[in-house]
Amino acid sequence: MPRCCVSRPSVCPRYLRSFPAKRLSLRIMEYRHVGRSELVTSAIGFGCIPLGGTFGPVDEADVLGTIRQALTVGITCFDTAPVYGFGRAEELLGQALGRWRQEVTIITRVGHVWDPANPEQTVRRDGSRAAVLDGGGGLHASLRRLGTDYVDLLLADAPDTQTPIEETMAALVEAREQGKARHIGVANFKSEQLLACLRHAPLIVNEVDYHLFDRRWDQEVFETCRMFGIGVLASSSLATGLLAGALTPETTFSETDPRHSQASNQGLFGDGNLAQNLAVVERLKKLASRHRASVAQLALAWVLHQPAVSVALVGMAQPSEVVENVGALGIQLTPDDLTDLETAMEGTAGLTDSLPG
């Protein structure tokens, strides 16, 4: 396959021939194999974290319109998780897809549990068989919320150090053998952890945060993925909105927004770092103008240019964002572009050398 584990079919996959607005989809969308697996999906994937209200209130009409726009332009990859709104994102996605469910790839995750009476304060990792398959954060609950009897890709989300990896992988394999998951993978697993998993399960993917501001996973795990034909799903491709081009130094975030609390690796937004990083974004805007593109389109084009990446996942909350993001597929980065991008990224602030978790 060209470019390591990434395949780029020049025509729409067979299962999309009855897709809505298929002429438009065929003209602008690109489809790739996920790693060296048989799974083919759109190069740009729809990240569903906004559907859970993480970044603010959700208007159901906006959700339906945005997902319909995604379907129209040929996006077939939808990435969700039970912890996004503690089930709400999965419910909205299932409702929005409706009769098009068979035409798309649904990805969800397992490995977290919480107390329904106080979910925000009690969520924790749990990779046990019971948590993976049952309970509010388990596969069976996800299937009910999504309104389907299977998912296309089931991921164990972040290692649970209290549970033997063999138990977690056995639960994924069980779901696959029962036809409740077509394929299985992991999210946020380092190289050593991924290698341990591969001894017990036929994984096809590792989903990690990856964007111009944060390339730590590239150094840690991409070579391992290449060696074993594991596809990389690049989540947060626009750095949780930093590369969307709409933030200013005066932007504030609600208390429930992870960028407010600097949860996980969100230090890009705090302690004076936001203004410094937005200066970097301004330099990127000048580079994007070479291609008559937005900074978001340039950033997505860079992610998609990376040989290990099968899909660039990006959260979308409005139909206009879908149209803009898909425009990244028309950008061909030159060696000069790549060199200038590296220069423009100098002076970023807010990330440590160590990976989260």
What CATH architecture would you give? Answer: Alpha-Beta Barrel
CATH class division: Alpha Beta
Multimer state: single chain
The stretches of 5 or more residues where confidence is low (pLDDT under 50) are 1-11, 19-27
CATH topology: TIM Barrel
Shape: globular
Radius of gyration: 19 Å
Overall tally of structural domains: 1
Structural classification? alpha/beta
How would you characterize the largest beta sheet? 8 strands, parallel, barrel
What percentage of amino acids are in beta strands? 15-25%
Distance between the termini: 33 Å
Question: What does the model show?
Answer:
By secondary structure, the chain is of the alpha/beta class. The chain has a single domain, classed as Alpha-Beta Barrel (TIM Barrel), CATH 3.20.20.100. It contains 14 helices and 12 strands. It has an 8-stranded parallel beta barrel with strand order 3-4-5-8-9-10-11-12, surrounded by 4 helices. A two-stranded antiparallel sheet has the order 1-2. Helix 3 crosses helix 6. The N terminus is likely disordered.
Give the secondary structure arrangement, pairings included.
Blueprint: H1 22-28, E1 31-33, E2 40-42, E3 44-47, H2 60-72, E4 77-79, H3 88-97, E5 105-110, E6 112-113, H4 119-122, E7 124-125, H5 129-133, H6 139-146, E8 151-157, H7 165-177, E9 181-187, H8 191-198, E10 205-209, H9 216-228, E11 231-235, H10 258-261, H11 273-288, H12 295-305, E12 309-315, H13 319-326, H14 335-344
Parallel strand pairs: 3-4, 3-12, 4-5, 5-8, 8-9, 9-10, 10-11, 11-12
Antiparallel strand pairs: 1-2, 6-7
Helix pairs in contact: 2-3, 2-13, 3-6, 11-14
